[in-house]
Amino acid sequence: MKKAAGIVGIILSVVFLVMGFISNAPDKYIKSYGDNKMYEYVGGDAYNYIIEAALRGGEISSAKTSRAIYFGAAGILLVISLSFLTTDEDKERISNQLSNIMDEVKDIQKALHQDHESSVSQQQEQTEPLKSIAEQDERSDSSN
After folding, report:
1. Which ranges in the chain belong to alpha helices (H)?
2. What burial letters (b/e) apply to 95-106, b meaning 16+ CB within 10 Å?
3. Are 70 and 19 in contact (CB under 8 A)?
4. Which residue in 62, 80, 72 sits closest to 16, CA to CA?
5. For residues 79, 82, 87 and 91, what is the CA-based torsion angle, rounded to 10 degrees?
6. What sign for the dihedral angle of Cα 94, 95, 101, 104?
7. Domain limits of the chain?
8. How far is C-alpha 141 from the geometric centre of its chain's CA atoms?
9. How many CB atoms lie within 10 A of CB 69?
10. How far apart are alpha carbons 74 and 19 in whole angstroms?
11. Which pLDDT tens digit goes with each residue over 99-110?
12. Is the pTM of this model over 0.90?
């Protein structure tokens, strides 16, 4: 049952993906009166252009939104379908690999932390003689 649902889901996601690619937005250009294709909504030319531009903007916006919905639905459906097709053994193997990677990351963090602490202690050891020299210079300057 899960395998059949996974296969049907992959087929539907491909259909949604194709629908996203083949759906197109209308032209962004407004046809003028010379073409006899512009609708006359009201008496003035400028008002007709404003109304036509608003309607055309809505058509373009809705077409682009539907494309985004198709692509999003295809992606979500593909992920869900692939999760149906994975077996419990695959999930266990992936989980083990992730836990091994996390253990390695923790080991690297510990090594970096220890390296940082040792470099700080070495810097402190190196600056100790300089501090004593600076203190001696201050004493000699204050006595003069």
Report:
1. 2-22, 45-85, 88-143
2. eeeeeeeeeeee
3. yes
4. 72
5. -30
6. negative
7. 1-85, 88-144
8. 63
9. 14
10. 10
11. 999 999 999 999
12. no
